[in-house]
Amino acid sequence: MKIGLQIPDFTRPEGPATLGPALRDVARTADDAGFDFIAVMDHFFQIGVIGPPEHEMLEAYTTLGYLAACTSRATLVTLVTGVIYRQPAILAKIVTTLDVLSGGRAWLGIGAAWNEEESRGLGIPFPPVAERFERLEETLQICLQMWSGDEAPYQGKYYQLERTLNSPQALSRPHPSIMIGGSGEKKTLRFVAKYAQACNLFPGPDLARKLDVLRAHCDAEGRDYDEIEKTCYFIFDTGEKGEKVGEMVDQLGNLAEMGFHAAMGAVANVWQVTPLEIIGSQVIPAVAGL
Predict the structure, then answer these.
(1) What's the CA gap between 28 and 46, in Å, rounded?
(2) Pairing between strand 37-40 and 2-7?
(3) pLDDT, tens digit, for every residue of 52-91?
(4) Of 194, 201, 254, 197, which is closest to residue 231 (Cα–Cα)?
(5) Which residue has the higher pLDDT, 233 or 204?
(6) What pLDDT does 240 receive?
(7) Alpha-carbon distance 242 to 236, whole Å?
């Protein structure tokens, strides 16, 4: 079982003036502690389950570029990019750049996008859900074509590219892994089976069924279900002095028994850094063999 840190909230009592050094300390501690992933949300306004929209929110890929320079081993990923936020070829170029500058540590986390409030607020077109999924599929095709070295034109319903040049190419081989976030059974999990190397699901009573649906899509696509990395969102709360570690290890064990390979999510009191050290010393070794 791999462990990933997501940093969803950049609002601190000290304000933004010290955010850079504080974020560096969090990332370096997580990297040194053995976290396999360091992730950020791809939002421009804070989302409601975390706080009001006015809370501080950093742009995702600028932040990951900064974290690339602060770390040396953890995979860097958005959890997850909204497909409508960037033109597909530019997104491929962004992830390629992150991969090259981080020494091959970038993943593309992507989904169909959902936050209409921030899109309307910032003037980002927010088409109906069916169109967003069509754009997601074209984006996946464009990224894979650009990472293949094929410079041929791409003619889609929404995107037309004359030359899909991508130089330099990513260091990751055959390309940066694609993780699709979401649990939609008809389209999202089918796209995972067809295009992705990983999925990310939210916890709930239907998790096992979602994996069964993914397996069925893999069978339909002729894809090996076992080669897809299954990740689940998870809130890490060690307790003030690590008293909740045992409970966490049990929960992670349950996810591993279901077939999940990684748990990724927020760490309570992450800016204090100590919880990351506790997870590194007590949780990561306990679940490494699951």
Answers:
(1) 24
(2) parallel
(3) 999 999 999 999 999 999 999 999 999 999 999 999 999 9
(4) 201
(5) 233
(6) 87
(7) 11
